[in-house]
Amino acid sequence: MQQVKDKTDGKQNNIVPFIPEGDFYFTKGVEAFQKRKFDISIKWIKKAIEAKPEEALYQCQMSIIYTEIGSFHKANQLLTEVLQSTDYVDCYYLIANNYAHLGLLNDAKKYANSYIDKEPNGDFTEEAKRLLHLIDIDEEDDEEDNNWDLEEEDELLIYQETVFYHMENRQWEKALPLIEEMMTLFPDHKLAKHDYAKALFYFGHKDDAIQMEQDILEEDPTSLYSHTNLALFYYELNQKQAYERNIQALLNVYPIHEQQKLRIAVTLARTGYYQDAYNRFRSLIKSSVNNHVSYYRWYSIASYHVGKQDAALALWEEGSKKHSQLANEEFPLRS
Fold first, then answer.
1. How does pLDDT run across 115-142, given as a tens digit for each residue?
2. FRET pair for 213, CA 20 to 30 Å: which of 39, 105, 107, 237?
3. CATH number (domain holding residue 206)
4. What is the full DSSP assignment across 126-170?
């Protein structure tokens, strides 16, 4: 033990030097990550990696931070380097998840299947299976889309953009007849049915809208859009048990696509799950969703309710510059 002379009183003090090791840095990094302080988390995890460069867990945690901030290529580069030196099985699922976010679904399937083959009862096995299920659904949608010729695709795009405008601006009476035409012309376009149910509900035909979504849910119990719509419908009708059942189905779902992520975030915010909604909004790639007025409206409201008042007002003001409808509304939480 090092002996150090105390010059102030002439006494001998036994001092144990404190030298932080990788585990200390790693713990601090995880704590910062859980608080969503990603810049600080990266600094701590880098220190952990410098202290123990052979520790695959630290590298994987760093990749998870990169994934959370949307740096998917950077995350996969790190994970690939880990696999070159050790067969750390969790890397396969993490790489699959990143490829899915990048839209590289064949690569995502390959790595997800590799993870399941190597760890049939692993920590991420259920997540890998859910990812494969989502990829299968996405590929089915692509097959349906490919059945349309270019002229039909152009026509569908015009309908979608027009309906989107009316739905975002809550012009239900204008949206309904257009969606009816869409469903007639493009019966395989599944999202139109959910948009129709939503417009129908807010136009006043609540029972018909609920029945429509219940019928879809019977055919496909995992329908994300049915659960988001029914959660909203039952919340508005103050039917707590039915509302909670659909909300619980959403809390465990983390979709691949930004539009689906946004729909869940908005639904959580509209039904009072502000912290969960705020976390979902934080994980969105802004450039993919900032054409939605609902992104700014409900992200702002969720931020306010979790104590981020200044950020909430800044979001509302930013959205008001981009969307005229929001500019015409008063910030609902202004004191």
1. 999 999 888 899 899 888 887 765 555 5
2. 105
3. 1.25.40.10
4. HHHHHHHHHHHHHHHHHHHHHTS-HHHHHHHHHHHHHHHHHHHTT
